[in-house]
Amino acid sequence: MSWAWPSDGLLGYGVWEVPEPLASAQMNLDQGGIGESPRSASNVTIAAHERLRQAILTVELAPGLRIDEDALAAQMDTTAEVLIEVVHALVHEGLVMPPAGDGVITIPPLSLDDLVELYTLRVVGEADAIWNTVPVLDPAACDRLADELRCIDRNGASAAGHGAHRRFHQGLRVGVGERRQRELSQLFDHAQRYSLAAGRRKLAKGPAEHRAILRACFSGERSLATQLLMRHCADTAYELIELQEPGRRAPSLEAAIELLSERFDTLV
Ligand SMILES: [Zn+2]
After folding, report:
1. Per-residue buried b or exposed e for 71-106, using 16+ beta carbons within 10 Å of the residue's own CB
2. From CA 185, how far away is CA 54, in angstroms rounded?
3. How far is ligand 1, taken at its centre, from the CA of residue 79, in Å?
4. Assuming Cys at both sites, which of 62, 64, 198, 254 could form a disulfide with 109, CB separation 3.0 to 4.6 Å?
5. Rounded CA separation 122/253 (Å)
């Protein structure tokens, strides 16, 4: 089985080596800042936050991993104060467990229950967002989305490909308010962690599904675009569940899809 979830949620406590790139964001920032733009605490914090965030989202730091705070700060070449700020922000994003005061940082483990919760929220939220977005997408916006799909085709499962995939889905939410966009982006990122942990780096059907969604947007077929996006999200969830526990049901996800299908069929 390719899914590398830790069975007990504990990995490498106390002996974890920070991968080399974790320190590199800090180093690059330092190199660029010397003598020109003075190094500020906020720049350092932003760079450290982004690097640690990416390490968690790309599962470079494995789900369930426990890391000694002092060791992490030292290996990231940053201070304890900066690390506290970074951890605080990541706890807020749900990417680090709330500290227990024992000097250890825990990366949230993955679970099938959480996966189903996550995708139930995503399906409902993304359906609502694209339903409100299709009417406000002009031809220029659709062209930009088409550019993102070409970028995915060119770059596949690389960081550039993932970035384009993220921007494509962001573009399908521009018709809703900032809070919903922010929450849905966060859910997308969390979902990505499940995909990468499963070793599922590229959707076999993804490109065709994305193009079908975009065609429906181009032609203003609001209901069709919504249905296709719901299916795109749900199929990913079912594929991940099947990889981990074949035959397992996902009642909340199934109920959400059934309810939304009825609604968006009748609101053409
Ligand atoms: Zn997608």
Report:
1. bbbebbbbeeebbebbbebbeeeebbbeeeeeebbb
2. 14
3. 38
4. 64
5. 10
Give the tens place of pLDDT for each residue, 104-133.
Answer: 999 999 999 999 999 999 999 999 999 999
Structure tokens at 98: 């709330």
Find, among 80, 70, 53, the residue nearest to 16 by Cα: 70
Distance 134 CA to ligand 1 centre (A): 16
Measure CA 138 to chain center. 27
Task: Quote the ligand 1 centre to 251 CA distance (angstroms).
Answer: 23
Q: What is the pLDDT of residues 161-181, one digit of tens each?
A: 989 999 999 999 999 999 999
Ligand 1 centroid vs 208 CA: distance in angstroms? 10
Cβ-contact 113, 152 below 8 angstroms: no
What predicted TM-score, i.e. pTM, was given to this entire model?
0.81
Measured in Å, residue 256 CA sits from the centre of ligand 1 at: 19
Distance 17 CA to ligand 1 centre (A): 33
CA of 53 relative to ligand 1 center, distance in Å: 21
Query: Which DSSP helix (H) or strand (E) runs through 206?
Result: helix 206-218
